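During the reporting period, our protein records have gained a structure token line. A sample record is set out beneath this paragraph:
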Amino acid sequence: MTLSEYFDTLRDKRIGVIGIGVSNLPLIDALLRSGCNVTACDKRSEEALGEDYTRLKKLGCKFMLGEDYLEALDFDLIFRTPGLMPFDPHLVAAREAGAVITSEMELFFRLCPCRIVAVTGSDGKTTTTTVISELLKAQGYTVHLGGNIGKPLLCDVDGMSSEDFAVLELSSFQLHSMTCRPNVAVITNVSPNHLDKHLDYQDYIDAKSSIFLGQQPSDALVLNLDNEFSEYYAAKAASKLRFFSRQRKPENGVYSLDGAVIRVRDGKENVIMKSGDILLPGTHNLENYMAAFAATDGIVSDEVCRSVAKSFAGVEHRLERVRELKGVIYINDSIGTSPTRTAAGLHALKTKPILIAGGYDKHIPFDGLGDEICLHAKALYLCGDTSDKIEAAVKASKYYDGSLEMRKFDDFRKTVVAASENAVSGDIVLLSPACAAFDMFKNFAERGRYFKEIVMEL
């Protein structure tokens, strides 16, 4: 079924789209232009929506706006925004009243004509997704990059070919209760994250399962053999299993030993490359590459794997070198929205940095991060809702001896400027917040861009 044919089936439906954001705007536009009866629901006001409100209203869109925008979800079909979980009482009531609940991403899976590689995980999923897309492009395929990164792909499905690849990064919010079947699914790792949104940690763990529960034996699931939850996922999978590991040799997959990255098929192995030849620094990026190599096994040649790994300089906001000023190097790792991701960034650097951390509180523990900061940071500059929690975790660490400089600020710019004023030649100033950005910014990318703007003005 094409997208146009699908829209034709909706002409007599009352459609509600919750969230007038990046993923849903193209969907709302396309539904309206197809003659569908659409109501867009959003917490923001007409004024806050600005040009989007004006443009959609001209196309015939109806609106439910303001604090009570979820109170009367009387629709036949509802497209939810990823940030509104399926167990929200308003959605539950709408479902019980007969509404079908879906999402832009779930519909994409239903209509996409090309092969799909989907990646999820607590850390590393953006880099892994991007590396997979780079590998496939270098092999000569047409690649459509989307999901939680890139642009919404739904409205492009009619122009896709069965020979193409769609490579998707999927969050637990998108995956929760979703029906999907990627040809290759990847779970990079799982650790506590987004506990402010999920019912509990088990709900978060199980949300990731949706990426592979719809797979068939002809499909493939790539898991991290070193992660404690991989055995749990493997037991539930019907698809072929591939693993990646820095500690053990899998029967099928990719592992690293003695400075080599090695591919294994049915127990037979061959060396792909030296791990030291990977341009991106850090053991976490070695893991990202192993996951990507396992995901593209049989599709991308070892020669292409080597070429991309030696030349790909990385993704914006991921240990991104911004500039060197007076001997001080500034690095933007705004994607570090969890303690484990920030710990990985600290381990990737050869010099202990002045760490800028803190942000939105996702109700995840910072105990382990306190140890990592004591061991791997020269100083800690805090800003954001979690400043007190991170400071407390550092002071509670068995490695804390009182000598680590810690300062707290109520303004992000002041934090960056203060870190620069106290840095000397040879230092690294690292933004890796260990938290989401929602307390001060729209998202981590906006935070990273602002950090770079401040640094370039120094």
